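Example 3.2
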Amino acid sequence: MVLRAETAAVLVRIHEFARLIELEGFERAMLKITGADEIEGINSLTARITDALCRETRGMEREILRKSLHEMLLYSTGVEIEVSVAVFGTKIERFLHQRGSKGLLRLFLSLHLFNEVWIKIQQRLQTSAPDGESFLAAMYWFEWTCRSAVDLAIGGWSKWPKLGRTLAKSLIDAVEFQVSNMRRPSAA
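Structure, written as tokens:
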């Protein structure tokens, strides 16, 4: 098992946060999730949101979840740290309008799956790779594998349901299944 049980609870919170943004706008959603009506700077904002979304986790799992959530927030808004909170909010609203909570969950799961495993294999790959180019190729392949596994797991859901903990666990199981069935292509 690559993804831990805590991930299901975080998936549900991401889905609820995304739905709240879609229904009430970013500012009201931010207020409800963080308890702060005004936040200075994107780093502070993403830290408050990630802390709220993974509030029940501890230790290394919390750190990996926070990294994945932070990346999700930045990637979904175009990876611009020097924008105002209002512009950030507009960008995440636009992302959700175009891709919905399903797109946000797809992004998070791809990043989180990569982070969970990469942290464990990075050192070993770095020492066994013949050169930097091989190491980067392995990293890009693994990133593609994670994205593909998540796409295959989520892609079958034509109608996106209200996501509860049981359904979130089923989604994680589907991702795990896809990962277990993917193999690295052999060099010809």
